[in-house]
Amino acid sequence: MFNSLSDRLTATFKNLRGKGRLSEADIDGTAREIRRALLDADVAVPVVRQFIAAVKERALGEDLSKALNPAQQVVKIVNEELVNILGGKTRNLEFAKTPPTVIMLAGLQGAGKTTLAGKLSKWLKDQGHTPLLVACDLQRPNAVTQLQVNGQRAGVPVFAPHPGVQSEHEEATGDPVKVALDGVAEAKQKLHDVVIIDTAGRLGVDEVLMTQARDIRNAVQADEVLFVIDAMIGQDAVTTAQAFNEGVNFTGVVLTKLDGDARGGAALSVASVTGKPVMFSSTGEGLKDFEVFHPDRMASRILDMGDVLTLIEQAERSWDKDEAARMAKKFADQEDFTFDDFLAQMQQIRKMGSMKKLLMMMPGAANMRQQLEEFDDRQIDRIEAMVHSMTPHERVAPKIINGSRRARIARGAGVHVSEVNGLLERFTQAQKMMKKMAAGGGMPGMPGMPG
Ligand code: GDP
Hints:
Elements: H1 3-16, H2 24-40, H3 45-61, H4 70-85, E1 101-106, H5 113-126, E2 131-136, H6 143-154, E3 158-159, H7 176-189, E4 194-199, H8 207-220, E5 224-230, H9 236-248, E6 252-256, H10 265-274, E7 278-282, E8 290-292, H11 295-302, H12 308-318, H13 321-332, H14 339-351, H15 355-360, H16 369-374, H17 378-388, H18 392-396, H19 403-413, H20 417-440
Parallel strand pairs: 1-4, 1-5, 2-3, 2-4, 5-6, 6-7
Antiparallel strand pairs: 7-8
Helix pairs in contact: 1-2, 2-3, 3-4, 4-11, 5-6, 7-8, 9-10, 17-19, 19-20
Bound molecules: guanosine-5'-diphosphate.
C-alpha cells in the first residue's frame, strides 16, 4: 500500500547520505521533497503542513552540524514525526471491568466490517477470550449469512435472531437496536466475555445511517466503537472519518485493504485528523490477514527499516510447539533431516500466511521490491507437490532417487525434471549443513566455533 511513498522517502534520504553537515538549504530542500512525496501519496493537506513544520523545526533546532551523521538524524526525526501522525503509542483494546466488553463496528458498506468481525473474534479467541458475534447488519443483502460463515470459520458463535435482507429488492424490517440489546443479554447469560456487534453501513454517509449507529451505541453502552475504513477510498477517507467521528464518536480506527495498491496516504491521515488512534489493520480477505496496528512499526515499514517485531509475532502465533520440540530433538540426536521434516516445516511457515507479505517486512525490502513482487506463493505449492509425489521411502532416503524416479516425481507434480533436480540439490545441501551444525554444536564457519 505505501510502496511509492516509501520509495520516495528513502530516495530523499539517500541524497543526504555522505553529506558531512547539512545547511539550512539542505534541510529546506529535503523538507520540500518530503512534502511533495506525502501530498502525492494523498496524505491530507493539513496533516502534511503540520508534519513538515515539525520536521523542519526539529531539524533546524537540533544541532545537525555536530551530529555524527546528519542524514541519520533527519531520518530519525522523520520517523518520530511519522509515528506521531499515526497516533503515537500503540493503543490496545480496553476491556470492561465487568464483562462482557461490548465492541461495535461502524463504517460504510463494503468497508470490511463483516470480514473484520470474523478476524477480530478469532484473534480474541486465540487469546483465551470467549467472544460472541452479533449480526445487526439487517440491511445489506446476505450480511447476516456472511457473518455466520465468518463466525463458523473463526470457530466463534453468532447471535443472529433476524435473517436480515436477502436480496436487493427487499425492504429492511428488523430492528438492529433490539438485536444488539438481545445479543448483549445473550452474552451475559452464556458468559461470553466479549461481544462484537456488526452494524449496517451505506454507500455514503447519511443521517439515517448515523442515527442508527448512534442508537445502537447508546443502547448497548459500547465500550469500544471501531470505525472501519477502506484504505483504498483515497481522499474520501478523511471526510468519511470526520463524519463518523462527529456522528458516533468512535474510540478507534481499523484500516482495511492495506494490501491494495492505492496510495494510502489518506488512511495515514485519519488518526491525525480525528484524534483517534488506529488500532488494527487488515491486509487481505483471509482470517489471518489481521494485525494490531503499531504506529512505530508502520513508520519503520514506510521508511524501509523493516518490521521484524511483527514477523516474530506472526511466527510465534502460528508456530506449533510440539512440532518445534520434535525438530529440536531430532537435531540434538543428529538424526537425518528427511523430506517429511521438510514438509512439516513448510507447513509451519505456511501457517504464518503469505510468504510474499512476510518477506516485505524485512528491512531493506524496498530495494528488492521488484524481485519480491515476482515471488509467487505458488512456488511453495510446487515444492509441496514434488514432495507429495515421492514415496514414503524416498522421503526418508532421498539418496535412492535416481533418474527414472526423478522423472516420475516430476510427472506426478506436473513440473519439469530440472525443478526436481534443483529441489534435491538444495535439500542435500541443507541436510549436510544441519548435520554439520548438530555435530559441531554451532553454526558452521563461525569463528571460534568448532565444526
Ligand atoms: P462490510 O459491508 O463493511 O461488512 O464489508 P465486507 O466485510 O463485506 O467486505 C467487503 C469486501 O471487501 C469483501 O469482498 C471482503 O472480502 C473484502 N475485504 C475485506 N477486508 C479486506 C482486506 O483487508 N483486503 C482485501 N483485499 N479485501 C478485503
